[in-house]
């Protein structure tokens, strides 16, 4: 299935010169009337890497009304450079609110260098003393650096579905570890569960993360809760308007991308393109939902779900294979790290489980090109897999009938921690579920085979499209349809559904080796109430030969 991309929300079409009239005819009506005094004060300020993180950084923000002469002042030493921002807008397809976003691309930066910047506009209420922050560009070559990751963050405003005060502590946790950048692996704020107020949920998210994301890039991938009704063909209109991300050279800019920092290549994917699970925007009913009249959008009927499997028509998988093949020819790249939202290997019992779609489309590529780490969310817990390579056929079974089902069960290359917990990264790919950002819904109960007592996983092997529910006029979606023994599961956190992954790359070990130290800090007790304490729960080291040395 290939869905037609809606031209009106493509990122390129939204690129407009600073200060010009927004693309939507509703923009001036909707926002100018409801905002105080044409307020162009920047908020929701965040950074992202350009294609080359050593030399290019985007500064992005939102203002309540259209900004006049939006700009970034970039300072280094006594020199100041003024960079004009471009405007991108979208009008929310459900409540009709127009959102004004601004993006300044800071080019020609010096690698591994600290910069100060400020963000302002002529109608910024703080124009005399505008918002200011600092950031550091990425290093070039084999240099040590740290990144962090989690997904499923939500907002601290408990008025919104799935929001929780823990999402505030999660932002502080990133600052505690001071990474060069943070990977936010999908389900950013769950705006798509709050139909009358999606832009307000995004605003609470953006203002919560600003105290970290304005100081170090937060690099996202889209999750199922970025899929919104009436906001573009894939529902990513809000997400794509708000973020400036490295170009992927395909008709789907921003959906997936790559960037290199030091000796590591980072690949961010849009797994909704390949998964079987139907978990985007969904209307259960029983009454039709009527978008605001200003949008002109038709009623959303009960049983409607925005299911986007196959949306790129294979474009993403072809890009992934090209990208991986090029990385393996490039001797400056020792490590390949993938982030995506949904899971190929998750054994959460009260969550979603594993998706066969990822196993079919991408795990063979991860095997062929030696991807080292896959960082996911979606299930709100922590789980680490053993290194896996290949799969075993026909060993799953249907959850209802018990009949055999081919789940493509991933095969662990070892099932015991090696001495000193130092893994040879060449042996297999390790998957981490890091879905413990800050939602109100921890999912840290895990499947157990009732006969063997060993880990068991739910697997989604076919589309779970809406079907009529027990109450007249309502619709429901089934959970995972199959089960398998989770022989690949190495560690599961039953204490807390919340935490943060911390990754330290060391490019120079004795003997021409390089390592990535993986640590997971969890927020013990957060399942019962918010906490600012993050404690070490799991730690391993991945080791491999550097690829630039002779014979490597
Ligand atoms: Fe989630
Ligand atoms: Fe999710």
Biggest sheet, spatial arrangement of strands: 11-10-9-29-30-31-22
Mean pLDDT: 93
The percent of residues in helical segments reads 10-25%
Q: How large is the share of residues in beta strands?
A: 25-35%
Bound molecules: fe (ii) ion
Structural class: alpha+beta
Count of strand segments: 31
- Calculate Rg over CA atoms: 23 Å
Low-confidence stretches: 1-36
- The CA-CA distance between the termini, in Å, is 42 Å
How would you sum up the major sheet? 7 strands, mixed
What does this structure look like?
With 552 residues, the chain is of the alpha+beta class. It has 8 helices and 31 strands. Strand 19 (396-398) and strand 20 (404-405) form a beta hairpin. It is globular, with a radius of gyration of 23 Å. The two termini are 42 Å apart. The structure holds fe (ii) ion (2 copies). The site of one fe (ii) ion has 6 residues, from loops.
Question: Summarize this, please?
Answer:
This protein is α+β, with helices and mostly antiparallel strands and 552 residues long.
């Amino acid at each position: 299935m290939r869905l037609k991309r809606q031209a009106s929300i493509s990122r390129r079409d939204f690129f407009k010169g600073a200060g010009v009239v927004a693309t939507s005819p509703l923009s001036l009506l909707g926002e100018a009337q409801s905002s105080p005094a044409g307020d162009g004060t920047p908020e929701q300020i965040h950074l992202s890497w350009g294609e080359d993180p050593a030399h290019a950084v985007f500064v992005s923000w939102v203002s309540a009304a259209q900004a006049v002469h939006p700009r970034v002042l970039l300072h280094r030493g006594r020199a100041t450079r003024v960079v004009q921002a471009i405007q991108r807008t979208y009008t929310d397809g459900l409540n009709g609110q127009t959102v004004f976003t601004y993006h300044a691309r800071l080019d020609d930066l010096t690698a591994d260098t600290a910069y100060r910047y400020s963000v302002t506009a002529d109608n910024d209420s703080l124009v005399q003393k505008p918002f200011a922050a600092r950031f550091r560009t990425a290093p070039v070559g084999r240099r040590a650096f740290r990144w962090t990751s989690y997904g499923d963050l939500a907002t601290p405003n408990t008025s919104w579905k799935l929001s929780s005060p823990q999402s505030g502590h999660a932002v502080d946790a990133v600052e505690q570890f001071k990474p060069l950048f943070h990977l936010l692996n999908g389900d950013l704020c769950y705006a798509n569960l709050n139909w009358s107020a999606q832009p307000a949920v995004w605003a609470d998210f953006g203002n919560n993360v600003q105290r970290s994301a304005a100081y170090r890039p937060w690099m996202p991938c889209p999750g199922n809760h970025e899929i919104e009704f009436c906001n573009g063909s894939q529902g990513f209109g809000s997400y794509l308007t708000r973020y400036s991300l490295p170009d992927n050279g395909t008709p789907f800019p921003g959906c997936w991308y790559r960037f290199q920092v030091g000796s590591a290549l980072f690949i961010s994917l849009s797994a909704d393109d390949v998964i079987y699970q139907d978990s985007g925007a969904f209307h259960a009913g029983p009454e039709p939902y009527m978008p605001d009249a200003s949008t002109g959008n038709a009623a959303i009927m009960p049983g409607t779900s925005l299911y986007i499997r196959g949306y790129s028509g294979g474009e993403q998988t072809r890009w992934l294979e090209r990208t991986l093949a090029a990385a393996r020819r490039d001797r400056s790249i020792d490590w390949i790290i993938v982030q995506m939202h949904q899971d190929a290997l998750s054994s959460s019992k009260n969550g979603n489980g594993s998706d066969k779609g990822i196993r079919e489309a991408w795990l063979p590529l991860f095997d062929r090109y030696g991807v080292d780490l896959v960082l996911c969310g979606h299930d709100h817990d922590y789980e680490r897999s053993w290194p896996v390579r290949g799969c075993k056929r026909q060993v799953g079974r249907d959850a209802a009938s018990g009949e055999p089902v081919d789940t493509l069960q991933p095969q662990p290359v070892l099932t015991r921690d090696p001495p000193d917990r130092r893994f040879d990264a060449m042996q297999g790919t390790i998957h981490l579920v890091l879905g413990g950002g800050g939602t109100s819904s921890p999912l840290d109960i895990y499947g157990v085979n009732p006969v063997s007592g060993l880990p068991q996983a739910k697997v989604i092997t076919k589309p779970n499209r809406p079907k009529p529910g027990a109450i007249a006029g309502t619709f429901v979606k089934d959970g995972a349809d199959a089960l398998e023994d989770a022989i690949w599961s190495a560690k599961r956190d039953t204490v807390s559904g919340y935490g943060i992954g911390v990754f330290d790359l060391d490019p120079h070990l004795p003997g021409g080796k390089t390592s990535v130290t993986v640590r997971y800090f969890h927020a013990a007790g957060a399942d019962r109430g918010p906490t600012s304490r993050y404690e070490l729960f799991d730690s391993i080291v991945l080791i491999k030969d550097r690829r630039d040395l002779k014979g490597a």
